[in-house]
Amino acid sequence: MGKALCCDKQGVRRGAWTPEEDEALVEYIKMNGHGSWRTLPMHAGLLRCGKSCRLRWINYLRPDIKRGPFTTEEESTIIQLHGMLGNRWATIASQLPGRTDNEIKNYWNTQLKKRLPNSGHFVGSQQPSFSTDHSTIVKTESPSMRHMVQWENARVEAEARLSMESSLLNSWSTSESHPDHFLQLWHSEVGQSFRAIKGKEGGGGVCQSLVSQASSSKLESCSDVSLQDKNTGSSTFANMKQEQDSSYKPKLEDGTAESELGYYEFLDSSDSALNHMLDMHDGEIGFLCESDSFLNTLDG
DNA sequence: AATCATCCCAACCGCAAGCAC
DNA sequence: AGTGCTTGCGGTTGGGATGAT
User: What pTM did the predictor assign?
Assistant: First the structure.
């Protein structure tokens, strides 16, 4: 892997941007797009490295940047997402139109963190609702948030199971025999439950949409989680949860066992799937939270 | 008014993933 | 498969703004 060294050059300006530089950058991007950030400064007549230009554009000059204080809703979203995702500022920012990861990160570090004692863990009513007990997860504010929490809950449970069974499953290769993990999910019992739910509703477009999107290349690197027990073919979330309750504790960032706060560190391999879920519109997975049968499925 | 402390945020740095060759 | 380049991300820092003494 290469390392960006663009700022090592001599004669490259650093520090605060001047209005003239801002103007030059905006004008150039308006006319030509940013293209290669590496070559942009030269073409735009800026004595800056491409990295600096990119940062300036993304964090400050982009026309769709939202300025001003964070709203209560935004704040709530940040708190909830941070509870689920940790310091994944870019992912959190993707759920807050007009806000940048840098801005959110700063806001968290300067405002929210100090309001939430115990190093970012939540207290009282601000405690994130993500929990290993799905009976609590529906208390989140917005439907989309509930969907995300439910999905994440299911995923962590699956990861818990996988971690426990990993030593037994070395005989099969997840990546080669099942390159598309969403298809695995689709063919699992949970997927069958989804189909059953949608079947009852007379629909199918949503599910198909889910599959077609999930089959895209972006999801090929998603978590190695399999929701289907390949050995028995009879795994359910219920027994997954039983096993999890008895022996599995997710880890905190410092490696200690997780408390009931549900502050998880997620595996990088799950990013694609998670991001995909976060990008879904409410309606696309709305049937999950509206449906008691889905929760029943989780319960077994 | 001067000095010091703290806050806040724009910008930088290093790392890693993705991609092309 | 190996290498180098580009881009994106998260952590950290520098310095201006503001408040306290």
Answer: 0.54
Neighbours of A10 (CB within 10 A): 4
Mean pLDDT, range A160-180, rounded to an integer? 40
d(CA A162, CA A160): 5
Q: HSE of A254 in the Cβ direction (CA atoms, 13 Å)?
A: 4
| Distance, CA of A15 to C1' of B4, in Å | 25
Residue A14 in tokens: 């650093």
Q: Measured between alpha carbons, how far is A47 from A12 in angstroms, rounded to an integer? A: 5
Range list of H helices, chain A: 19-32, 40-44, 50-56, 72-85, 89-94, 101-107, 113-115, 143-165, 174-177, 181-187, 189-200, 205-214, 237-247, 271-279, 282-290, 292-299
Tokens 């699956």 sit on residue: A158
Query: In the structure, how far is the CA atom of residue A110 from the C1' atom of nucleotide B18, in angstroms?
Result: 33
Amino acid at A151: W
Supply A136's token pair. Answer: 């609590």
Most confident of A10-24, A124-138, A162-176: A10-24
Nucleotides of B under 7 A from a protein CB: 7-18
Q: Taking the CA of residue A50 as centre, how many other CA atoms within 13 Å lie in the half-sphere pointing to its CB?
A: 12
User: Measured in angstroms, what separates residue A110's CA from nucleotide C18's C1'?
Assistant: 15
Given a contact cutoff of 8 angstroms between Cβ atoms, the answer to whether A75 and A112 are in contact is: yes
Residue A21's Cβ-side half-sphere holds a number of Cα atoms within 13 Å equal to: 21
